[in-house]
C-alpha cells in the first residue's frame, strides 16, 4: 500500500495534504527503524530509552501543534496512531509531554509563560509531566482533589500526593494541579523536578506500559513562585479543556494498537503452517482477521471525523468521550483476537503481541474510564446527568 499502514483499508491517510503526509512518512520511518526494534527490550526491563529523545526532537514533533499555522488535527491523530503502532509506551511518554504538559501551558499559561517554557519543551530540551491523578482520587479528582496550594506572599506552598504520573521520575517541568485553600478552586503550577519539597518514586510491578516511568509524587511544603502559577488556570474547567483534547489522542493511540495487532496477526497467519498449509487459508483465521480489520477501520473512521470536528471548532466533550470509550473497547477485542490467533506464541514477547495485549489495558483505563466517558455521552444525549 505504498508505504501506508497495512490496515488502512479505506485509505484514510489519503485525506492528509502532501506536506503533512511527508511529516507522517518521516515519523513512521524513525519509529519503525529506531523505536519498534527496541520496544520489547525496554518494556521487559521497565527502563526508559532516553537515547530516543534526540530522534523525537530532530523530527520536531513536540513543537508541531503549537506552531502558527498549526498542523491539522488529522495529522496529529495519525502521528499518535503511528507512535502507538510502534510502542504504546513511547506514545504515552510523548502524549504526556507534548499533549498534557505543553498543552496545559499553551492553554492556561500567560504569553510570557508560554514563551519561557514552550520553546525548550518543543525542542525536548526540557521534558514535561502532568500531575492530576491522586492516590485516592481518579474519576472524582475534580471534586475530591486533596492536594492543596496556599498563597504565602509571592510564593505558593503545595502539599499533597499524586499518583500514576507519567515521566514523573525524570521530568524537568511538572504541571501540578492543586486546590487553592483560599477559594477552593483548582489551579495549575509548574514545578521543577529539582524543586525542594518535590519527591518522585517510580511505581514498580506494572503489567502494562512498563517503559513509561510512572511515579508516586509527594509534595511537602513545596514552594512555587507566583510567576510559575499558570495564570489562566482558575478552575477545573480549565484543566478539562486540556483533557478533552488529549482524550481524543488516546482514541487515536488505541487505533494504532489495533493496527499493530492486526499486522502481527496477519504476518503470523501467512507464515505459520498447520495441516500442510499456512493458517491464513483457514476460514476461522480469516474470520478473526476480518473482525480485527473491521474494528480498526470503524474506529479509524470515527477518529478521522473527530479530527475534522476539532479543526472546524464544533467538537464537544461528548465527541472525545465517545471516541475514547468506543475505540479503547474495540482495541481490547482486537488485541485479544490477535493473541488468540497466535495461540501459545502469543504469550511471549518474541512475537510482540503480548506487549500490545498488556498495554491495551492501560489505554483502556487512563484519560477517563469507559464508564465515566459513557456517562459524559449519556448526559449529552439524554439531557440527564447520571453522575453521583
TrEMBL record:
Gene3D superfamilies: Acyl-CoA dehydrogenase/oxidase, N-terminal domain, Butyryl-CoA Dehydrogenase, subunit A, domain 2, Butyryl-CoA Dehydrogenase, subunit A, domain 3. Residues 243-381 form the Acyl-CoA dehydrogenase/oxidase C-terminal domain. It comes from the Bacteria. GO terms for biological process: fatty acid beta-oxidation. Residues 129-222 form the Acyl-CoA oxidase/dehydrogenase middle domain. Its cofactor is FAD. Keywords: FAD, Flavoprotein, Oxidoreductase. Residues 19-124 form the Acyl-CoA dehydrogenase/oxidase N-terminal domain. GO terms for molecular function: acyl-CoA dehydrogenase activity; flavin adenine dinucleotide binding. It holds the Pfam family Acyl-CoA_dh_1. Belongs to the acyl-CoA dehydrogenase family. PANTHER family: ACYL-COA DEHYDROGENASE, ACYL-COENZYME A OXIDASE. This is Glutaryl-CoA dehydrogenase. It comes from Spirilliplanes yamanashiensis.
Amino acid at each position: 500500500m505504498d508505504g501506508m499502514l497495512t490496515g488502512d483499508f479505506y485509505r484514510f491517510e489519503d485525506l492528509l495534504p502532501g506536506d503533512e503526509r511527508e511529516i507522517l512518512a518521516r515519523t513512521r520511518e524513525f519509529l519503525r527503524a529506531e523505536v519498534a526494534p527496541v520496544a520489547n527490550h525496554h518494556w521487559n526491563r521497565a527502563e526508559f530509552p532516553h537515547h530516543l529523545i534526540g530522534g523525537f526532537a530532530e523530527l520536531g514533533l513536540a513543537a508541531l501543534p503549537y506552531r502558527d499555522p498549526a498542523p491539522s488535527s488529522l495529522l496529529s491523530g495519525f502521528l499518535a496512531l503511528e507512535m502507538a503502532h510502534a510502542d504504546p509506551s513511547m506514545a504515552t511518554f510523548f502524549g504526556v509531554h507534548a499533549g498534557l504538559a505543553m498543552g496545559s501551558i499553551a492553554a492556561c499559561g500567560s504569553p510570557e509563560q508560554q514563551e519561557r517554557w514552550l520553546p525548550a519543551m518543543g525542542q525536548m530540551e526540557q521534558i514535561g509531566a502532568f500531575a492530576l491523578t491522586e492516590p485516592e482520587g481518579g474519576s472524582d479528582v475534580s471534586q475530591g482533589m486533596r492536594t492543596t496550594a496556599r498563597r504565602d506572599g509571592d510564593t505558593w506552598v503545595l502539599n499533597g500526593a499524586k499518583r500514576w504520573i507519567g515521566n514523573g521520575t525524570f521530568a524537568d517541568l511538572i504541571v501540578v494541579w492543586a486546590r487553592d485553600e483560599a477559594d477552593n478552586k483548582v489551579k495549575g503550577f509548574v514545578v521543577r523536578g529539582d524543586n525542594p519539597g518535590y519527591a518522585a518514586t517510580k511505581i514498580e510491578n506494572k503489567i502494562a506500559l512498563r517503559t513509561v516511568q510512572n511515579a508516586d509524587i509527594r509534595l511537602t511544603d513545596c514552594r512555587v513562585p507566583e510567576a510559575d502559577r499558570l495564570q489562566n488556570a482558575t478552575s477545573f474547567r480549565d484543566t478539562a479543556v486540556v483533557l478533552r483534547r488529549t482524550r481524543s489522542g488516546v482514541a487515536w493511540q488505541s487505533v494504532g494498537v489495533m493496527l499493530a495487532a492486526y499486522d502481527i496477526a496477519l504476518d503470523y497467519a501467512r507464515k505459520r503452517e498447520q495441516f500442510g498449509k499456512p493458517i491464513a487459508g483457514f476460514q476461522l483465521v480469516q474470520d478473526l482477521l476480518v473482525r480485527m480489520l473491521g474494528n480498526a477501520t470503524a474506529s479509524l473512521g470515527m477518529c478521522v471525523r473527530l479530527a475534522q470536528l476539532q479543526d472546524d471548532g464544533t467538537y464537544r466533550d461528548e465527541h472525545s468521550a465517545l471516541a475514547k470509550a468506543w475505540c479503547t473497547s474495540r482495541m481490547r477485542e482486537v488485541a485479544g483476537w490477535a493473541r488468540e490467533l497466535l495461540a501459545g506464541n502469543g504469550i511471549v514477547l518474541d512475537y510482540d503481541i503480548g506487549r500490545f495485549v498488556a498495554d491495551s489495558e492501560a489505554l483502556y483505563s487512563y484519560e477517563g474510564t469507559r464508564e465515566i466517558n459513557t456517562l459524559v455521552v449519556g448526559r449529552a444525549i439524554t439531557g440527564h446527568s447520571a453522575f453521583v
